[in-house]
Design brief:
The complex is a heterodimer.
Chain A (H helix, E strand, L loop, with lengths): L5 E12 L6 E12 L3 E5 L6 H8 L7 E5 L6 E4 L11 H11 L6 H9 L14 H14 L4 E5 L7 H18 L2 E5 L3 H4 L5 E6 L2 E7 H7 E7 L7 E8 L2 E7 L9 E3 L3 H10 L7
Helix pairs in contact in A: 2-3, 2-4, 3-4
Chain B lengths: L7 H9 L1 H27 L2 E3 L5 E3 L4 H39 L2 H4 L6 H34 L12 H5 L2 H19 L3 H22 L7 E6 L14 E9 L4 E2 L19 E9 L4 H30 L2
Antiparallel strand pairs in B: 1-2, 3-6, 4-5, 4-6
Classes of the chains: A alpha/beta, B alpha+beta.
Chain lengths: 282, 315
C-alpha cells in the first residue's frame, strides 16, 4: 500500500493533558494507518481516548509525542461531540459561514439538502434548535465542505432512531459517492454494524484492535462446547457454564476440536474485546 | 447592510456580533443627538452684556449648565471606552470561543488559526477605533462650548486623553491585551475581569506619571510681604508651588501675605523666594506623543504575544 492510500496515520502517537503533573496519558504509543475510502468505527469505553484521537487528527491539539498524519485543514471536517455552533447565528447564516470559510469547495446544495430534512426553518437561530437539529446542522456544515477525511465524534447520539437512520443513509451515500474516508466514534454498536468496514478499538489510550471488519471477523471464531485447552489460539474472552464453554478466540490456524464454531458478529467481537480486561492497564 | 461587502472570516465576525454593532451605532447616534442638541441650544441663547466687561447667558445659564453636565458624563464615558473594548475582546470575542468550544468549529474550516484571530482582531480594532473617533468628533462639538473652564482644561483627565492621541492608543492596547488574556484565560468572565484590571492599571500608572515625562518649567519670585503671587502663563498646568528658604531648599507653604495667618508664613524660617513648577500648554503634544509611544509599544508586545500563544497551541 502506498502512502497516498493512507487517509490517517499515527506513529507512536501520545497525548498527555495538563503537563507533567497532569491527568496522565490520554493516548499512548498509538500506531495505525487507516486506508483511504474506509468507513472506520472508533470504539472503546469512556475515557479510552477516542475524542482525544479525533481532536489530534483534526489538528486542534498538538501531540505530546509521536506524530499523526492527517490531511490539510482544508481537506478534513470535524464534528465534535457537543456539536459546537455559533448560537446567535441562524441556520442559513451558519451555512453561509461554511461557504465563506471554505471558498472554492463549498457544496451549498448538499448542505441545504441535509438541513431541509430537519423540519425547521433556516431562519431559526441555532440557539433555539434541539440537540438532534444541531447535529443535522453540524453534519451539513461538515459535509458541505466536501472533505477527504470526515471526523465524527459520537455523531448520532442526539438523534431519534428515524433521523439517525436517515442521516446515516445520507452520510454513507455521500461517502461512497465521493470516496470520503470517515472516522466515526460511537457507543451505539448497531449503528456501526453494516455501516463500517474498518474498526479501531481503543482501550486505556492504546490501540487494541485495528483492521478491516471482514478480516477481523474472519480472524476470530466464536465457539461453544466442552471445556478444553484452547491453545494455540488466543482467547479474547471465555465463559464457562457448568461443563459448557463459550469463547471468542483469535484463531491460529484451523480450529479443530469438539466445539461448535461460528463467525462472530461485529457486536460479539466488540463486546468481547470491550469486556475483557486482558492486557489493559489499570 | 455593510456585511454584504465583507468576505470570509470578516463576514462571520460581523454577523456573529451584529447586535453589539447595532448597539454601538445607536449609542453614537444618541450621543450625537444629546451633545449636538445641547450645543445648538446653548449657541442660540445669546449672552447679555451686564457691566464692567461681564457677560451672562440670557437664560441664567441653564443651557450652559446642562451642556457642562452632559460633557462631564461624556468625559467619563469616553475614558471608559478602552475598558469596554478590552473586556469585549477578551470575553465574548476570544475566551467565549474557547469556553463554549466553538473554536473547534472555527479552526477546522479552510483557514489558518492566524487568519481566524487576525480577522477577529482587525474587525474589533476597526469598529473600536472608528467608534472612538466618531465619539471624539462629537466630543469636540461639545468641547467648543466648555473648553478652558474648570475640569475642561487641556491637562485635565478626560479632555487630555480624548482630545489627543492617547485615547485611541489605549483602545489599541485594550484590543491587544484582550486578545492575549482571552487566550491565556479561557474563561470569559475571568478574562474580562483580568483585562479590565490590566487596562485600568496601565491607565492609572500612566496618568500618575505622564507629567513627569517632560521636565517642568519653574518660575521664582520674591516672597516678601506685599509681594504679589507669581504668575505663570495662562492655561499652564501648575504641578507644584512653594517657598524657598535661605539655603535654597524648597519648603512647602504658600506665599506670605500680610493678612495671612502666621502659620502659613513659616515664621521660624527665613524665606527668600517662592516658586512655581508648571507645564506650559506647549507640553501637551510632546506628552501625548510620549504616552502614545509607550502605549503602542505595549500594544505591539501584547499582540505579538497573542499570536505566539495561538501558534504554539494550534498547529
Amino acid at each position: 500500500m502506498t502512502k497516498d492510500d493512507i487517509a490517517l496515520e499515527a506513529d507512536l502517537l501520545g497525548k498527555r493533558y495538563g503537563g507533567r503533573r497532569g491527568r496522565g496519558w490520554a493516548l499512548r504509543e498509538c500506531d495505525f494507518a487507516l486506508p483511504a475510502g474506509r468507513i472506520c468505527a472508533l470504539v472503546g469505553p469512556n475515557g479510552a481516548g477516542k475524542s482525544t484521537l479525533l481532536a489530534l487528527a483534526a489538528g486542534l491539539l498538538r501531540p505530546t509525542e509521536g506524530t499523526i498524519g492527517a490531511p490539510a485543514r482544508e481537506d478534513l471536517a470535524y464534528v465534535a461531540q457537543d456539536k459546537p455552533l455559533h448560537p446567535r447565528l441562524s441556520v442559513a447564516d451558519t451555512l453561509r459561514m461554511g461557504r465563506e470559510l471554505n471558498p472554492g469547495r463549498w457544496d451549498s446544495a448538499l448542505a441545504e439538502r441535509i438541513v431541509e430534512g430537519g423540519g425547521f426553518s433556516s431562519d431559526t437561530l441555532v440557539h433555539h434548535l434541539s440537540g438532534g437539529q444541531r447535529t443535522r446542522v453540524a453534519l451539513a456544515l461538515a459535509l458541505g465542505k466536501r472533505p477527504g477525511l470526515l471526523l465524527l465524534d459520537e455523531p448520532m447520539a442526539d438523534l431519534d432512531p428515524l433521523a439517525r437512520h436517515q442521516l446515516m443513509g445520507v452520510l454513507m451515500a455521500d461517502a461512497a459517492e465521493h470516496g470520503t474516508t470517515v472516522v466515526m466514534s460511537s457507543h451505539i454498536l448497531t449503528e456501526l454494524e453494516g455501516a463500517c468496514d474498518h474498526l479501531l478499538l481503543l482501550h486505556g489510550g492504546r490501540v487494541r484492535l485495528d483492521g478491516a471488519v471482514d478480516e477481523l471477523l474472519a480472524a476470530h471464531t466464536l465457539l461453544t462446547g466442552p471445556v478444553a485447552d484452547l491453545a494455540p489460539h488466543t482467547v479474547v474472552e471465555s465463559r464457562t457454564t457448568g461443563r459448557q464453554l463459550t469463547a471468542l478466540i483469535r484463531h491460529e490456524g484451523p480450529v479443530e476440536g469438539p466445539w461448535e464454531t461460528s463467525e462472530p458478529s461485529l457486536e460479539d467481537l466488540l463486546l468481547a474485546h470491550l469486556r475483557t480486561t486482558e492486557g489493559a492497564p489499570a | 447592510m455593510s456585511t454584504l461587502a465583507l468576505k470570509g472570516p470578516y463576514w462571520v465576525t460581523v454577523r456573529q456580533y451584529r447586535r453589539t454593532l447595532w448597539l454601538t451605532g445607536a449609542l453614537v447616534l444618541l450621543t450625537l443627538a444629546v451633545i449636538g442638541g445641547l450645543r445648538i441650544w446653548n449657541a442660540q441663547v445669546p449672552d447679555v452684556y451686564m457691566e464692567d466687561g461681564y457677560w451672562r447667558p440670557a437664560d441664567d445659564g441653564s443651557s450652559y449648565h446642562m451642556l457642562r453636565g452632559a460633557m462631564e458624563q461624556f468625559s467619563v464615558g469616553m475614558v471608559l471606552i478602552p475598558f469596554l473594548v478590552g473586556v469585549f475582546v477578551a470575553g465574548p470575542l476570544i475566551a467565549r470561543e474557547f469556553e463554549s468550544g466553538t473554536y473547534r468549529l472555527s479552526l477546522t474550516q479552510s483557514l489558518t488559526p492566524v487568519a481566524w484571530l487576525r480577522a477577529k482582531l482587525l474587525t474589533a480594532t476597526a469598529v473600536a477605533v472608528g467608534t472612538t473617533l466618531l465619539l471624539t468628533a462629537i466630543y469636540l462639538i461639545g468641547w467648543g462650548g466648555v473648553s478652558g473652564t474648570w475640569q475642561f482644561n487641556w491637562a485635565d483627565r478626560g479632555p487630555y486623553e480624548i482630545t489627543g492621541t492617547a485615547l485611541v492608543s489605549y483602545v489599541l492596547l485594550a484590543v491587544a491585551v484582550g486578545a492575549l488574556v482571552g487566550q491565556l484565560i479561557r474563561r470569559a468572565l475571568l478574562a474580562m475581569a483580568v483585562t479590565g484590571g490590566i487596562v485600568g492599571l496601565v491607565m492609572l500608572v500612566l496618568s500618575s506619571f505622564r507629567w513627569d515625562f517632560l521636565p517642568v518649567r519653574t518660575v521664582t519670585g520674591p516672597a516678601v510681604a506685599n509681594a504679589s503671587t507669581i504668575t505663570v502663563p495662562g492655561d499652564s498646568l501648575i504641578v507644584e508651588q512653594g517657598l524657598i528658604g535661605v539655603s535654597g531648599q524648597r519648603l512647602p507653604g504658600w506665599f506670605c501675605s500680610p493678612d495671612a495667618p502666621a502659620a502659613h508664613c513659616r515664621p521660624g524660617e527665613d524665606i527668600t523666594a517662592q516658586y512655581v513648577d508648571y507645564h506650559p500648554e506647549s507640553h501637551y503634544w510632546p506628552t501625548q506623543l510620549i504616552e502614545t509611544g509607550i502605549l503602542l509599544a505595549l500594544a505591539a508586545l501584547a499582540a505579538f504575544a497573542a499570536f505566539r500563544v495561538l501558534r504554539a497551541r494550534h498547529p
